[in-house]
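Slide 14.
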Amino acid sequence: MIEIVSAAACIACDICVKVCPTDVFERGENGIPVIARQSDCQTCFMCEAYCPVDALYVSPVSAPVGADSPHADEAAVASNNLLGGYREMLGWGRGRTPGSLRDRNPLLKAVPPLQDSRLPVPAPRVVSPWNHPTDSATGDDEVDAHPNARSETGSQERQVSRRSR
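Slide 15: predicted structure.
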């Protein structure tokens, strides 16, 4: 949650006011933003990340801290180099190494070859489009017919049998 706007470091650029998704800040009389609606803060760190002079501190605690907390004490936060700490961690700002260059995760240089599957083939391979067995009793070798297709004689026979019921 946003805890500190350092009036000594702020240049009154209003970037924090513009990037805040929940409208936590208001422009003060001297141009320095003030925390107007702290309870609306989502702890998204957008204001701290975009502040060009590291004048903001967003506490990692998602609820407002008490006045006696070191997270609310600007001198304690500044002495521990936490003003703009999130921005520094991202590598944003002049003279900082971008976080993407500090990343220690291994890079995938090539796709490893896939091993042959040890599982059996899930189904027999299809030779014809419908893979219907031939009816040896009737000698019907129509393999290319669609399984849902009906012959006209078959549908007429079914209609006659329904009427006779």
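Speaker note: The two ends are 78 Å apart (CA to CA).
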